[in-house]
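G., the chain you wanted modeled:
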Amino acid sequence: MKGLLIILGVLTGILSGEYKANTLSVAEQDSILGVQVTGRYRLESENEESLFRHSSVADWYIIDTMRHTRKPLGEGKVRDAVMSPNGRYVAFAKDNNLYIHKLDFGTEVAVTKDENTEIINGIADWLYEEEFATTALFAWSPDSKMLAFVRLDETEVPTFSWDVYSDTQYPKAESLRYPKAGCQNAKASVCVYDVATKGIQRLQVTGDGLQDMYIPRLRWTDENTLLVLRVNRDQTKMEILSCNAKSTVVHPLYAEESKKYFVDYSLFDEWQWLSDGRFIVLSEKDGWRRAYSYSSQGVEQKALTPEGMDVTALYAVNEKTQTLYYQAAPKPSTRQIYALNLKKGEISQLTKDEGMWSARFNNEATKAVFCYQSFESPNTYYLGKVESGKWKVERALEDNAEVKAAWQANGLPEPEMLQINGLEAMLLRSPITDNPSPLIVMHYSGPASQRVLNRWRKRFEYALVEAGYAVLIVDTRGGDCKGRAWRNATYMNLGQKEAEDLIMAANEMAKRDDIDGEHMAIMGWSYGGYQTLYTMSQKNHPFKCGVAIAPVTDWRLYDSAYTERYMRRPQVNIGGYESASLLNKAADLSGSVLIIHGTGDDNVHVQHTMQYIDALVKADKQFEMQLYPDDNHFLRKGNNAKHMHEKILRFLNTNL
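Predicted structure as tokens:
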């Protein structure tokens, strides 16, 4: 038991951020690769305060390396400070407005002056930050003469509020603009600010009646050309608009639309642009994520990578040797790095060891920092030269040997990789017992997600193994890196197929001699919490108990961008929403359940749990519940993570 508590403490520290394996920062990689980061000036921040998942405000400072001075940027805490390419300006945001600091003169000018707090200039609202993985919605032109930005009008977005209970005699109300499925989103537009004239022009990117749309990315390709990524509300169509920032003339460069599935906007982040205007697209339009070459006018030339394997990243192009470097998944659980000769079409695999390989290249794509990890190996970094079809290691930069040795001292097992009727899975089980082990099925099950990966990931499942349980981690239909049809297997009808897969996997495991099929549990967080409760509402499930952490319980209560990406709007898919709702299934729940939620969760609101337990009470169903006051979706506040994991262990021990 003492060993278990030590491991639980270490794992809790990892989850809360207290323990961190040594890794190379982006700045360190830039230095190693010889990338020019700054000129005379550089930026640094301190006293950072987190806002939501990615955003934060901080005290930013300008460091003059010539005069050896350090001066504050803006007044008080600001966010998203970005230096211009010529090193003469810094753009940043404060109170929903954009500002530019002129380094030559030490002065600041307001780019926008909106006093309406519902107008957001150049930064993401909650929805864009959470579902489009961005905080800064502004971009400098290559010559530093213009600053393009997205303007969001939240006036019609409904407000969600919750109470803050701690340390006050009366609860304090917090609120944010949170568009739920089918409700009004923020209205987006694109503006360009001229640094010299201080004028702002609005680009006409909202034509064709597309007021209800998303603009999650801006990208300059030259001094005058701004690319705008436009995605329709249902996320079934994405367009790349080429905009002349001076004349404001807009024309379409690329469009992709699907009648059957959603279109993945995030692949735009991987596109590569060549000096002659040609570009390389990553798209899954033909059933797999593949690279395609396009002319400067947006005409498709040919497919570059083969079918049958999802490309997961496009890293760089060496134009001198006409070589594209990319990452792909030869097996769903692994990642390897490849070199493609654009002239000959020949592909070479640069990395060999089984596991997860990633890379970061210098500007010329002649050198790269390669990172490798696997079940047995924490992050290991190598610096190497890359030539057409070859990679030569110059030296190892970091091997994290101490981290590896400290973990191996625990003597815990590595996963056994499995395929269960087409599902990817891995089993963790202590080798020191001959008796059948009770089984915990851990999963996420959300669309385009993966948990079964050959990577260094040491978390709560190992504490469960130390406590005597076997742990099965499984990816259901709808997961990633098995082609587009597999990714979209649950489209418009979340919950049912994933439940079928989880039940099937558990029943198959129960046939093994080393698994106690009479004592099995299921556990998940967020979408995994939703899927746990959905699965335990099926008549034929084999689980004695389940743990649902921060579960969605009705998709009409969750945010618009995520939900509608996979379900479209409730107005056009009412049957799908009704079928997916746990509120309609409370009477069917069987087995013991523990529901855990933070009352300050800005992502999956505690409203989900409250409506669900109301339905359980009406159905005369007993349950256990653990609330964490004022904590968010990740439950890392104070002692909460440790307390939660001990609570889960006690619940499992009691019910299994």
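The two ends are 17 Å apart (CA to CA).

Shout if anything looks off.
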